[in-house]
Design a protein that fits this description.
Helix content: 55-70%
Strand content: under 5%
Structural class: mainly alpha
Shape: elongated
Radius of gyration: 29 Å
Largest sheet: 4 strands, parallel
Number of strands: 6
Strand order of the largest sheet: 1-2-3-5
Order of helices and strands: EEHHEHEHEHHHEHHHHHHHHHHHHHHHHH
Number of helices: 24
Distance between the termini: 74 Å
Length: 525
């Protein structure tokens, strides 16, 4: 079977195809649909593919696609090549049309029989658009989803709605996740007490309980929160709302001269920075591609979530969702400021008019897809717990236990020596040597910070010198210094060694500077 994408009917002259796909530009509807009768002059079976529909919505118009399909007598679908939306459905329609007999029952075919000229075709298309193309001021013929779409992508309402949705997501994550999180923590503590009564005191029991069980258990306790958060993220992705968030931010980014498509990898960065950097490959302009990759580490990946949740649960009980949103907003805002500055340097200075130009239709999320997305994140989280977090917990325990072989004598341990070496640099941020060590262990994976805190502070950071101010300063440092070694390795491979090292140094400096400002200014009040 042959499939031909048609932009002009001359392509079809003298050929007989099973089916013809005509691409219809939503922003040039009349011009595109005028080709349809000409195509039918050459071929019996065609399918219309509607693209760039969100640009039509920006002009305060909407198109009733089912009614268009009914009036014109040609199977119609909406597609987005860039977002990979609607392509399987379009292919299915093409195969179905190719397999069935050609129809001659619709008026558009009678136009050809009556030797209709260009004026006849134009009048016919104009009549169809009169019945299917709707202005925003005349929305009585719009579907309910089209009306919802206009509200969600409204320049004034879209952003507040997006912030309200994010607030609800984080509120549910903390509220619903608090119960299973508490159960896991109680289970870990009960298991620890049982093992202490079962095992003889010594380095082996200390390694198993103080190192492995407490370190891994502290990270494992946040698994319910991870499941709940990615459940909501999956719903937003599968329903099409995530694409509308990108559309809203695209408009904002263009106002400061940034790349429209950059927000797609940035959105992915909230899950993991590594695939987000790789997703920027789709940006054709090399300067914009590299700049987008440099912006991605500002996005707060899921590896940082356990750190945030630990401190927010402990010190910001009444304002959990607001504090979480503020961290994400700070990361996005600093990435925008960073990009604006970089766009004015010799490396990235150029004009840019690219845009996010496709929005998928709203659709009901499928349980199978949602479960698959959640399992993908859960599997990644569990894999880190069984590898990076486990080894980090063992190493931290060993550095804490030796050479004194006494966890009560931390000041003379190898870990204390490392922490006290970097402590003078971190004291202006309100961090003691233990906090500094925790940040060092976060280099391979940010989740390791939680296990290190559990080992060093015995799971009670509230009684260990932290205050709400130092806690927020600490979270800002975790937010801003480079996510993990894997991210830097990916950035080195995709953008080059120079930009990878640039990210290491500028992120460390920015994390120190912002945390310094917050702590020093906050200490004045």
């Amino acid at each position: 079977m042959q499939f031909v994408e048609v932009h002009h009917p001359d392509q079809l002259h003298g050929h007989a195809y099973d089916v013809v796909l005509q691409v219809v530009d939503s922003t040039r509807l009349e011009e595109s649909l005028l080709l349809t009768p000409h195509i039918i002059d050459e071929q019996e079976k065609i399918v219309l593919a509607i693209c760039r529909y969100d640009l039509l919505l920006q002009t305060d118009h909407s198109l009733n696609i089912p009614k268009l399909e009914q009036l014109i007598g040609v199977p119609t679908c909406r597609v987005s090549v860039r977002l990979n939306y609607g392509l399987p459905n379009c292919l299915s329609i093409l195969r179905e049309v190719a397999a069935r007999p050609a129809s001659t029952a619709h008026p558009i075919y009678h136009l050809r029989d009556q030797e209709g000229d260009e004026d006849t075709y134009r009048a016919y298309v104009h009549g169809i658009l009169t019945e299917t193309l709707t202005h925003a001021k005349d929305d009585k013929h719009q579907t309910r989803l089209e009306k919802i779409d206009k509200v969600l992508t409204n320049p004034w309402l879209g952003f507040p709605i997006m912030m309200a949705v994010l607030y609800l997501v984080f509120w549910c994550t903390f509220t619903l996740g608090a119960y299973p999180q508490e159960w896991i923590e109680l289970g870990v503590n009960a298991l620890s007490e049982w093992l202490w009564t079962l095992l003889e005191p010594g380095w082996w029991s200390s390694l198993l309980i103080d190192g492995v069980l407490q370190g891994v258990g502290a990270v494992l306790a946040f698994l319910p929160n991870i499941i709940i958060l990615f459940f909501f993220i999956s719903l937003m992705e599968d329903s099409g709302y995530m694409a509308r968030e990108a559309f809203i931010m695209d408009t904002i980014m263009h106002r400061v001269g940034l790349h429209g498509r950059s927000f797609i990898p940035m959105l992915m960065g909230f899950g993991c920075n590594v695939p987000a950097i790789m997703a920027a490959r789709d940006i054709q302009n090399p300067k914009d591609r590299v700049l987008t990759m440099l912006m991605v580490p500002f996005m707060s990946c899921s590896a940082r979530l356990p750190v945030y949740m630990l401190f927010v649960d402990t010190f910001f009980e009444r304002y959990k969702a607001l504090v979480m949103i503020s961290l994400y907003a700070i990361g996005i805002s600093l990435s925008v400021i960073f990009a604006v500055i970089m766009k004015r340097t010799k490396w990235f200075r150029q004009a840019n008019d690219d845009t996010v130009n496709e929005l998928p239709e709203f659709r009901v999320p499928k349980a199978r897809n949602t479960a698959a997305h959640i399992w993908e994140r859960v599997a990644d989280y569990l894999q880190k717990i069984c590898t990076v977090i486990l080894w980090a917990s063992i190493i931290i325990w060993a550095l804490e236990y030796f050479p004194t072989q006494d966890l009560e004598d931390l000041e003379h341990s190898y870990l204390a020596s490392i922490g006290q070496f970097v402590s003078p640099l971190m004291e202006p941020l309100g961090f003691d040597w233990k906090m500094s060590v925790c940040l060092l262990t976060g280099l391979p994976a940010k989740e390791a910070i939680v296990s290190t805190l559990a080992i060093l502070y015995g799971g009670d950071i509230a009684a260990a010198g932290f205050t709400p101010l130092t806690a927020f300063s600490f979270m800002l440092f975790v937010l801003l210094y480079f996510p993990c070694v894997a991210t830097i390795a990916t950035l080195r491979r995709e953008a080059g060694r120079g930009w990878a090292w640039f990210t290491v140094f500028h992120s460390l400096f920015l994390a120190w500077f912002i945390s310094f400002l917050v702590y020093q200014i906050g200490s004045l009040f």
